[in-house]
Design a protein that fits this description.
80% of the residues lie in helices and 3% in strands. The protein is built from 3 helices and 2 strands.
Length: 147
């Protein structure tokens, strides 16, 4: 393996690690977004389940239900910005993971090309170093005589 091929192999290792890190960051950002979406759904479910009872209800209970509803609404509103931020971070991580994959594939193609070039060069050198052998003189016989 010549220096160029060895260098390209090292580059492949680095690009592979970069790609793995980008994929891990994407997975983390996706998990964060999923947990925020799940939290938002739970808040929405709690708000819809917070129904007023029919019939006679104590004033204190109505006050508590109203206050809880207001707090759930505020929590949902306050969750909008983190949700948007998590979505943006996930999209950015996806772009970075995609570009890391492209760089890794490019490095692999360069390495393969370098390996093929090195193999061709080695074959050419082996052919050049092969001693030239002269063929011994031979007589061809045509119909029993020398030609």
């Amino acid at each position: 393996m010549n220096a160029r091929t060895a260098r390209r192999k090292r580059i492949i290792r680095v690009r592979t690690v970069e790609h793995q890190m980008a994929e891990a960051n994407l997975a983390r950002a996706t998990g964060e977004l999923a947990s925020l979406v799940e939290l938002s759904k739970r808040l929405e479910t709690l708000r819809t389940d917070l129904a007023m009872a029919k019939g006679a209800v104590a004033g204190r209970a109505l006050n508590t239900i109203g206050e809880l509803g207001m707090r759930l609404d505020m929590a949902k509103e306050n969750l909008a910005a983190p949700l948007a931020g998590a979505s943006i971070r996930r999209d950015e991580a996806g772009v970075l993971a995609q570009s890391a994959m492209v760089r890794e594939e490019s490095a692999v193609r360069l390495y393969e090309r370098s390996r093929q070039s090195e193999a061709q060069e080695q074959e050419r050198r082996n052919d050049a170093n092969r001693p030239h052998r002269r063929r011994a003189m031979s007589l061809r016989l045509i119909d029993g005589g020398a030609a």
